Amino acid sequence: MLLPRLLLETGAIAVTQLAVYIGFAVRGLLIGEEGIWKSAQLAAMQVAVAAAGGIGLTLLIGEPTDAPLLHRTLSRIDASFPPPREILTDVATAVILFDVVFYILHRLMHTRLLYGRIHSRHHLAHIPSPFAVVHAHPLDYLLTQAFPVMALVRLLNAHAVTMVIVGSSGLLAAMYSHSGDLMGVMSHRKHHRQPTKHFGVLGLADAVAQRVEYVLSRIMGGPAR
Asked: Which residue ranges run through the membrane (predicted)?
């Protein structure tokens, strides 16, 4: 292998992310979307931030732990292509777990400590646009978008192919959910209209949290909602 595994993995996911952003940038130019150049610059910066953060995360939790630093990875890299069933299972598991992790991190971003300092920048993007996802503080993008995917890939010991699929499809879903509503999936635009609700991605974590809050309110003797 000509490139160290760490650089190969980081390069693959960065190129994939950039390809998605470039595709949307070209679309924006064709339809005359305003501010597309600034948005494209922000996207490139966020990809660079995510790549640097991913390298740092890999050095901390990458495998194998006894390998030289540049040969550690978050995903599984080998010569064989993963079976379709493995890819489908890992992608489905990652999506469900991401809903839970994102819900928790997103609610933390709405706490008084983090909202004003970090997350409020994202809520300044009022106009629906695919690039609204990159109009965020770099730490916000890193902690709520990039790190959860990377950590889940490591947790599942998923193949690098799966990491690229999860990363690119997740980015596409995030960009589309900031410009339109995905059929059958909770609307993220509703969250931008009502910042105290709709913290998750699929709506599963929100539904469970609401049920838990309801049960706790009944136990504590609060009013039923």
From this structure: 12-30, 42-62, 87-105, 155-176
